[in-house]
Amino acid sequence: MRNFEEWFSGFRKSIADYSYYTDFEKVYGNIESIKLELNILNSLIGSKNIEREFEKLIGKYPETLKCIPLLLAVRAKEVFVFDGINELQYNFAKQNLPIEQYKIFMKKTGMFDLISNHLINNLVDYATGVEIGLDSNGRKNRGGHLMEKLVESYILKEGFVKDETYFKEMYIRQITQKWGVDLSAISNKGKTEKRFDFVIITPKMIYGIETNFYGGGGSKLNETARSYKALAIESDSIEGFDFVWFTDGKGWISAKHNLEETFDIMPHIYNINDLENGIIREVFK
């Protein structure tokens, strides 16, 4: 019998590598795609009559409108605003409202003030900073991918071959079609389309594998622990199939009780220490 407290004490604070914090290649690529338009908008910096000059600029270069959402840290091409009476839909990919309405948007959002009063000196530099800030939202996904990469490195180390003895991102229906195993017990009789991060095939067993790493807490962790507990219980009834979960991260401190409940009933729940101690070799025989 494994001891939960001992196991949990080995959880890591982080597995972030140097590329985790900001994807600069993506940032630079996004800026490059609108760099010309941003430089055109630069002509408005310090303008004494920005509303009139903005109107002239958009009339001559309407494509510059597509830059504006990013300047407000918005990814969408369409922006919705409720002005107290009506809901307005601003399209920045293709002008759909009179220029006067776009001038109201620029004024009310504070963009005219930002540009005309020299609060910024260069919109390309400003937009690059905004892109870096927006890219920080991708760290959560990158953190998940880091754990996937880590687990996969140990799978490969044990001699498993991609698309032969292990597979990435497989849905339940694909597993059923490929090997004929009945997974209706974990798919709500075919109504739920669950996807596993990895599937490993051995002569005796099919293993559905989930991986995640939580550096920070949150309500999602409790739900994850509960749902994986249910998945482990449901998997017990399926002959020739096992559910395996690799997880780690100090974020679990906020959901420790639920994780312990899952640990108590789930034989195949492992952390990074387990990976380092050869659990892949021990389990997947």
How are the secondary structure elements laid out?
Elements: H1 4-8, H2 24-32, H3 35-41, H4 50-60, H5 68-71, E1 78-82, E2 87-91, H6 99-109, H7 111-116, H8 123-135, H9 139-157, E3 166-171, H10 172-179, E4 195-201, E5 206-213, H11 219-235, E6 241-248, H12 256-265, E7 269-270, H13 272-276, H14 279-283
Parallel strand pairs: 5-6, 6-7
Antiparallel strand pairs: 1-2, 3-4, 4-5
Number of extended strands: 7
What is the string of helix and strand elements? Answer: HHHHHEEHHHHEHEEHEHEHH
How much helix, percentage-wise, in residues? 40-55%
Estimated share of beta-strand residues: 5-15%
What spatial form do the alpha-carbon principal axes imply?
Answer: elongated
Q: Enumerate the spans where pLDDT stays under 50 for 5 or more consecutive residues.
A: none
The structure class reads alpha/beta
**CATH architecture descriptor of the largest domain:** 3-Layer(aba) Sandwich
CATH topology of the largest domain: Trna Endonuclease, Chain: A, domain 1
Between the first and last Cα atoms, what is the distance in angstroms?
Answer: 20 Å
**Number of discrete domains:** 2
Averaged pLDDT: 93
Q: Report the top-level CATH class of the largest domain.
A: Alpha Beta
- Treating each run of at least 4 consecutive H or I residues as one helix, how many helices? 14
Gyration radius, in Å? 26 Å
